[in-house]
């Protein structure tokens, strides 16, 4: 299993002043069994890159392969099943369903994949408990703090045991202790021969969890650091 391989990925968006080149031929890898962090200044293309990898943005040039499946070759009707099979999302915005309880929100991906509500809720409660949300199963999102809502969103991303985790600032709304607990769980899932994780972050508290840190600037990948040196370099 290879994880994620991007070759010469480019994408542009039309503007009144002409095309805006957001990605400019990016070569990027996120190996299976590792946690790869993607860092760089705001607007450098990090979130755009993971959106292309997820199949959320169409029209990119180059090639994206996720566990040997060529995402850039998929038709529109193939993208939703691809995401359901392979990907867990953690975004900056929680995107929880206001009318569902905490446990129900976290169970949604399993239900979408065909599990019964009962089986899905059992799995979601187990994971929520690991994230410190055991006392909140029956609450609605509006009854939670921002940090608590993010933990529910993280449980929802992990509950179906995806092969690829795509995380955009997953600890931004959490205190230090909760952020460390979340990253510990993400790392446990990523460090497995058939799983990979990509974490976009500006949070220096979590750099030490990375196997690799990939630096982006102005739509290009500029440097990749591996091992212990990755965390040390990313913090400077």
Kindly list the characteristics that best describe this protein:
alpha/beta; Rossmann fold; four-stranded antiparallel β-sheet; 236 residues; 7 helices
Summarize the structure.
The chain has 236 residues and is α/β, with parallel strands linked by helices.
SSE topology:
Elements: E1 4-13, E2 20-30, E3 35-39, H1 46-53, E4 61-66, E5 69-70, H2 76-86, E6 87-90, H3 102-112, H4 117-130, H5 146-158, E7 164-168, H6 176-190, E8 196-200, E9 212-217, E10 220-226, H7 228-234
Parallel strand pairs: 3-8, 3-9, 6-7, 7-8
Antiparallel strand pairs: 1-2, 1-4, 4-5, 9-10
Helix pairs in contact: 3-4, 3-5
Report the principal-axis shape.
globular
- Low-confidence segments, given as residue ranges, are 228-236
Q: Decide which structural class fits the backbone.
A: alpha/beta
Q: How many β-strand runs? A: 10
Mean pLDDT: 89
Number of domains: 1
Indicate the CATH architecture: 3-Layer(aba) Sandwich
* Proportion of strand residues: 25-35%
Strand line-up of the largest beta sheet = 6-7-8-3-9-10
Give the class-level CATH name. Alpha Beta
Q: Over the alpha carbons, how many angstroms does the gyration radius reach?
A: 18 Å
By DSSP (H or I, 4+ residues per run), the number of helices equals 7
* CATH fold-level assignment: Rossmann fold
The major beta sheet can be summarized as:
6 strands, mixed
Question: What string gives the helices and strands in order?
Answer: EEEHEEHEHHHEHEEEH
């Amino acid at each position: 299993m290879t994880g994620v391989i991007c070759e010469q990925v480019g994408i542009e968006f039309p503007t009144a002043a002409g095309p805006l080149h957001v990605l400019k031929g990016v070569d990027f890898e996120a190996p299976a069994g590792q946690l790869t962090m993607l860092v760089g200044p705001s607007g450098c293309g990090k979130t755009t890159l993971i959106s292309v990898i997820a199949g959320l943005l169409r029209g990119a040039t180059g090639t994206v392969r996720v566990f040997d499946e060529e995402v850039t070759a998929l038709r529109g009707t193939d993208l939703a099943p691809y995401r359901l099979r392979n990907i867990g999302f953690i975004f900056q915005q929680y995107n929880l369903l206001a009318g569902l309880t905490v446990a129900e929100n976290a169970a949604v991906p399993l239900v979408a994949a065909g599990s019964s509500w009962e089986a899905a809720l059992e799995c979601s409660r187990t994971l929520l408990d690991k994230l410190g949300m055991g006392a909140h199963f029956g609450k609605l999102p509006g009854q939670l703090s921002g940090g608590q809502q993010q933990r529910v969103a993280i449980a929802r991303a992990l509950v179906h045991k995806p092969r690829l985790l795509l995380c955009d600032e997953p600890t931004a709304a959490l205190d230090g202790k909760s952020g460390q607990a979340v990253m510990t769980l993400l790392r446990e899932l990523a460090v497995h021969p058939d799983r990979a994780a990509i974490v976009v972050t500006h949070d220096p508290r979590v750099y030490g969890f990375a196997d690799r840190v990939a630096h982006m600037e102005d739509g290009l990948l500029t440097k990749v650091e591996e091992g212990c040196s990755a965390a040390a370099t990313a913090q400077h």
